[in-house]
Write a structure and sequence with these properties.
259 residues, N-(1-d-carboxylethyl)-l-norvaline Dehydrogenase, domain 2, 8-stranded mixed β-sheet, 10 helices, 13% strand
Length: 259
C-alpha cells in the first residue's frame, strides 16, 4: 500500500497512531493541529512535515485520519478536503453520519486502548475496530488496519458505542479508583507501590476467569462489619464514602443474582 496518509490531530491517540503508521512503513505526508505549538512539537518528534493551516494540507493523499476530540470532530470534518480520498475518524462514540456528503468514502478506525504520549506500547497488539461506508472502502480500510495491528474486527456503529461505554467502565473508572486508592493508602503513610502486586493479580485473573468469578471482598461476602469499619475510615472523604456504598451495593446485587 503506497497511499500517503495525513493525520489530523496530535493528541495521545494521534501520536501512537502516527508512530504505528511509520513503523508499518506507511508514508505520512503531514501532521496537522489547529494549535501551532502542538503541530510543531509533533512534527519535530517524528521529523515529519506539519502545519496548523488548513490550506497547507496536501489534497492528494489517500487517507485522512481525524484523531481529535469528539467535540472538535464535527467542526474539522466541515472542511472540504480531498473528496476522492478515504476519510477516517478514530472516535468510539460517534457514528459515520458525521462525515456528511462531502466525504463519500469514509469509515472508522477505532483503537481500543488507553494511550499516553510518553508511555510506549506495541500497537500490533491494539485491537482495531473498523467500519466503512461501502464494501470497497471496508476492504481498503481492512488492509490498512491489518498493517497496524494483528487484531482487526469489523463492527457496527451500535456495537462500537456499546464497546466504548464498556471501555469507560473497564479503563477510565478503574483508573479513577486507582487514584482514590492512591490517596487513601498515602493517608496511612504508605506508597501506592504496595498495591501494585494486588492490581496486577486482579487484572491477570480475568484472563482466566470471568469478572464475576474473580470477584472477592467484603461486599460479595456480605460482611457488613468490615464495610462499616471502612465507611467510618471514610468519614473525612464523603465522595469516596458515597462511591464505596454504591459500588458495594452493586457488587452485592450482582453476587446475589448468581446464587
Amino acid at each position: 500500500m503506497e497511499k500517503r496518509v495525513v493525520v489530523i490531530g496530535t493528541g495521545n491517540v494521534a501520536t501512537h497512531l502516527t508512530e504505528a503508521l511509520l513503523s508499518a512503513g506507511l508514508p505520512v505526508a503531514m501532521l496537522f493541529s489547529r494549535t501551532p505549538r502542538h503541530a510543531a512539537e509533533a512534527g519535530q518528534r517524528f521529523q515529519l512535515p506539519y502545519t496548523s493551516d488548513w490550506s497547507e494540507l496536501p489534497s492528494d493523499a489517500g487517507y485522512y485520519i481525524y484523531s481529535v476530540s469528539d467535540t472538535a470532530l464535527p467542526e474539522v470534518l466541515e472542511r472540504k478536503l480531498a473528496p476522492e480520498a478515504i476519510h477516517l475518524h478514530t472516535a468510539g462514540s460517534i457514528g459515520m453520519d458525521v462525515f456528511g456528503a462531502t466525504k463519500p468514502r469514509h469509515g472508522v478506525l477505532y483503537p481500543l486502548q488507553t494511550f499516553s504520549k510518553n508511555k510506549a506500547l506495541n500497537f500490533k497488539d491494539v485491537p482495531l475496530f473498523i467500519e466503512a461506508s461501502s464494501p470497497e472502502v471496508l476492504g481498503e480500510l481492512n488492509q490498512l488496519a491489518s498493517l497496524l495491528s494483528t487484531k482487526v474486527r469489523t463492527i457496527s456503529t451500535a456495537q462500537r458505542r456499546q464497546l466504548h461505554l464498556a471501555a469507560v467502565y473497564a479503563c477510565n473508572f478503574v483508573n479513577h479508583l486507582y487514584a482514590v486508592a492512591d490517596e487513601l493508602v498515602q493517608d496511612s503513610g504508605l506508597p501506592f507501590e504496595v498495591l501494585i502486586p494486588l492490581i496486577n493479580e486482579t487484572a491477570a485473573k480475568v484472563s482466566e476467569l470471568t469478572p464475576r468469578q474473580a470477584q472477592t471482598g467484603p461486599a460479595l461476602r456480605g460482611d457488613q462489619g468490615v464495610m462499616d469499619k471502612h465507611l467510618a475510615l471514610l468519614h473525612d472523604h464523603p465522595q469516596f464514602r458515597e462511591l464505596y456504598t454504591l459500588l458495594s451495593k452493586s457488587i452485592a446485587d450482582k453476587g446475589s443474582s448468581n446464587l
